[in-house]
Amino acid sequence: MLTDPTFDPAGTVYELPAYTLHKLQGPAIEAGELGRVDVVLLSHEHHFDNLDRSGRALLPSAGRVLTTAQGAATLAHGAIGLAPWESSEISAPGGAVMRVTAAPARHGPAHADRGPVIGFVLAFDQDPDQTVYFSGDTVWYDGVREVAARFRVTTALLCLGAARVSAVGDWPLTFTAEEAVEAARAMPSALIVPLHFEGWEHFSESREDVDRAFTAAGLSDRLRWPKPGKAVRVGGDCLT
Predict the structure, then answer these.
(1) Any idea where the domains of the chain sit in the sequence?
(2) CA dihedral over 171, 174, 180, 185, signed as positive or negative
(3) What is the pTM of this model?
């Protein structure tokens, strides 16, 4: 299972009408080394830092691609579009069924139309109260608060970094460190796995900013930092 795949090399530059994106790090694991990809959880397809050229080329070979309705229409190749709170079921090894529910997301301030984005909540039928939340690119707002109210999230994969681009001014487009603390407080059972906070020039906050905010809030024991290409254990599960 992949989230928002990007496999272009470090140094790639994406010239866009309103701004330019610079990729600073390449993938820790090359696409060709992954083997079979059963599921891609794609929060949105219209920004290169969530789906770059090599990531897009991988999608037709994936077993299932779940994304926004607009993204599915653009991608074709059998991609499935989900609106917030809609679900899709996936059979897992051993006969278990995983339910993937689209979660609302807002990619920046309310006044800036950054296009449709969703997050995902994953739950297995044998233990529906143990759920994994992947935020996608979102800021802290009422939609994320509702995710926390509807589900008992036990692992939260949060896109951090307070991404900023010139077209939107100084408004963050992804969780700031302080907003991640708010999410952690709203999801008191969740271990927090920071993602998407390095590797691109437009991220304005680093690991140090996140560590500082969680330490000040007394929540540093909730953080689990993944190392690129290595597995990180979260509860009884193992994520890479």
Answers:
(1) 2-225
(2) positive
(3) 0.94
